[in-house]
Every structure is written in structure tokens, then in C-alpha cells.
Amino acid sequence: QVQLVESGGGLVQAGGSLRLSCAASGRTFSSYTMGWFRQAPGKEREFVAAIRWSSRNTYYADTVKGRFTMSRDGAKNTVYLLMNSLKPEDTAVYYCAAQVSRYYSDYVQERNYDYWGQGTQVTVSS
After folding, report:
1. Are the beta carbons of 71 and 50 closer than 8 angstroms?
2. Can you give the pLDDT of all 126 residues of the chain as single tens digits?
């Protein structure tokens, strides 16, 4: 079993920055891909960013490209999402997810992730 715990959310003014963390624990944690998703009120959950664990290649939704940066620390089994130039439309609950059971080339689809964190709220005021 794998547990994912997000932290770092909060309230920030537009133009500000936040760094989210997602710490993974469990039986000898190993994953193919880690992802960040978000869900705004009244909307479906959407892909934000992903990182391939071995290559560290990163991928971003067009809405956050150039503003958000995803990274990982293998020693800590932790991934980060640095969010700069935040906008009110970035307000959402942000979820961390892990692709553990097998490799999927598609990192956007939620169904390709095995484990999810409980989410952390990010609120951007205008």
C-alpha cells in the first residue's frame, strides 16, 4: 500500500507563489510517474503536471506551462509543484497521484494512476 500526503496549500494573492509537496510512503515506494491534478468548485478534476520518476521528464497542461514547475527528490520520495504567477483561476484542490502498478504512456488520464492523496486547497485572491 502507498500513502500520498500533500502539503503546502494556502491562500495567496494573484501573482504570488506557492510550493506544494507530496510525500509518498509505504512498502518500498517506487513509481513510474507522479502527477498533480486539480479540481475547482463545480468542475471536473483536471491534469496539471506529471514527472517520470526515472528520467525526470516533466509534462504540463497548457494552462500552467511556463508558470508551474514539477520536480522530485528521490531520497525523500517526495514530489513538488512550484507555482508562480498564480491566477484566481488556479484556485482548486490540488491532488497528488502515483502511477505504480505499470507504466502508462498517457500521463493525463486519471485512470492510469493507482494512488491518490487527500488533496490540499489552493486559493488565489484577486
Report:
1. no
2. 899 999 999 999 999 999 999 999 886 677 899 999 999 999 999 999 999 999 999 999 999 999 999 999 999 999 999 999 999 999 999 999 999 988 999 999 999 999 999 999 999 999
